[in-house]
Amino acid sequence: MITSLSIKNFALIDQLAIDFTNGLSIITGETGAGKSIILGALGLVLGKRADLSSLKNTDEKCVIEAQFNISKYNLLPFFEANDLDYEAETIIRREILPTGKSRAFINDSPVNLQELQALSLFLIDIHSQQQTQELSEEDVQFKIIDAIANNKNDLGAYQEILKEFRSNKSQLASLQKKQSESLKEQEYHTFLLEELWSAKLMDGDQEQLEEDFERLNNVEIIKEAIDKSLAIANEEEIGLLHHLKEIKNTFQRITPFSAKYQELLERINSVIIEFDDICTELNQHSEMVLSDPEKLDYTNQKLQLIYTLQKKHQVKTVSELLGIQNELDQSLVSISNLESEIEKLNELITKNEGELDALAQVIHEKRVQAIPVLTDKIIQILEKLGMPNVRFKIDLKLVPTYFSNGKEELQFLFSANKGGEFGLLKKVASGGEMSRIMLAVKAILAQYSKLPTLIFDEIDTGVSGEIAIRMGEIMKQMSTTMQVFAITHLPQIAAKGDSHFKVAKSIVGEVTNSELKLLTEDERVLEIAQMLSGTVVSESALNHAKALLN
């Protein structure tokens, strides 16, 4: 429950601080006095967005602070999950700075609006005329039935599996799309892979083939060069080898004269050995250099194949071609893996569907049992609220689709008149009837679930007299188990409150200000009398007000 509210520099309010109690609290005031401002301030505390228009004085910051007793709401897990300090008396503060920046705090810890909005769902339910219209929405109708059916745990389990089911379905669709695209390319990729396989490529092939091609393509030039070199080296009397040996013989005669000459002789001898070895190799190469047109043709064809593959795949080396070959091989393997993954996902989805169907059936059966209870209770309350011939019919139909709350479609059918045809609630119920139906629903839900503080914002629209008294009695009954606020223009409802607050607007100089005041017993009599008769209060109005209060 909300225990206090303080407002500073908001709309028409300079400064306001007020305490609240449990039970039924009434808020009254003339149209335009500022009741909507109080709700607006509460809305900011609950996480609604703000702007500079909220500031009364744009040079100062606006501060709205509300204190809540949350000891009975089992909110410790929420505070732990959001890393917040838990206090039985929790304080929420919103600040709007002159710059337009907004800040929010829970027990002095800064939070974002999402966290604040999540907490607010457990604290206050502001019931406006707009929310009355939401009663005709299927999602809201399911929540009403599920509260009576006690489906909370089953729905939680269903939604967890549904989340997994949808994730698996999404993955399956993605894999199937990938498989479809892969299959389209498979034939072409297989052709490319076989083409590369048939080339029997190895690292270094290209360099060796290019060298072989150059050698085979220039056999005559190579043979001529080697043979000429051998002739120069081995020619008798004028060959290089003969001259080197002559130099060696000449130096042998002078080596005794100096160690340096001996060293030079050894170097000459090394040259002769090395040159002799070169000549031997030249002889070998000369014998090996043979014209081989077939090998030349084979080498040329293999090189042309490599060049063609490089051009096709837009690469420059055999190593890159081998990399592409490996990628193609892996892509074909991955298609096989995709089939395995798709099969596993299909098995998981089938399992999910079985679990969802089982839970959906349990939820459905509980709803079927809850519907007569709900309709009977609504009718009982509405009969007290001046609708003696009201009839409700709730159609629930199982469908194949997995919705977020089960596998059913729902229709709330309504007839206000005896012998009248049933019609969809949103089409046939008037504004006044919708207000009474919503009050009945809230009264019933208060018996089945722990509702947060409930604020009825002029739910009495379209009713008066005895019906208003009955509405007040229902709110009074609800307030025995929860904190209830009623913003009203009807004295019959105002008289049912445990406490009564008045919103009033005053003008001081050129400045308009709104304030919220807790009325004393005498002030309350006068306020209700004014609601009955207007600003000029008659004796009979005062007596009527006292009678209503008693």
Automatic annotation (TrEMBL):
Write the record's keywords in alphabetical order, separated by commas. Answer: ATP-binding, Coiled coil, DNA damage, DNA repair, Nucleotide-binding
As recorded in UniProt, coiled-coil segments are 328-362
Q: Which is an annotated Pfam family here?
A: SMC_N
Domain (RecF/RecN/SMC N-terminal) ranges: 1-505
CDD domains the UniProt entry points to? ABC_RecN
Tell me the superkingdom of the source.
Bacteria
InterPro entries named among the record's database cross-references: DNA_recomb/repair_RecN, P-loop_NTPase, RecF/RecN/SMC_N
Tell me its family: Belongs to the RecN family.
Q: What does this protein do?
A: May be involved in recombinational repair of damaged DNA.
Q: PANTHER family, from UniProt? A: DNA REPAIR PROTEIN RECN
The name of this protein is DNA repair protein RecN
- Native organism taxonomy: Bacteria, Pseudomonadati, Bacteroidota, Flavobacteriia, Flavobacteriales
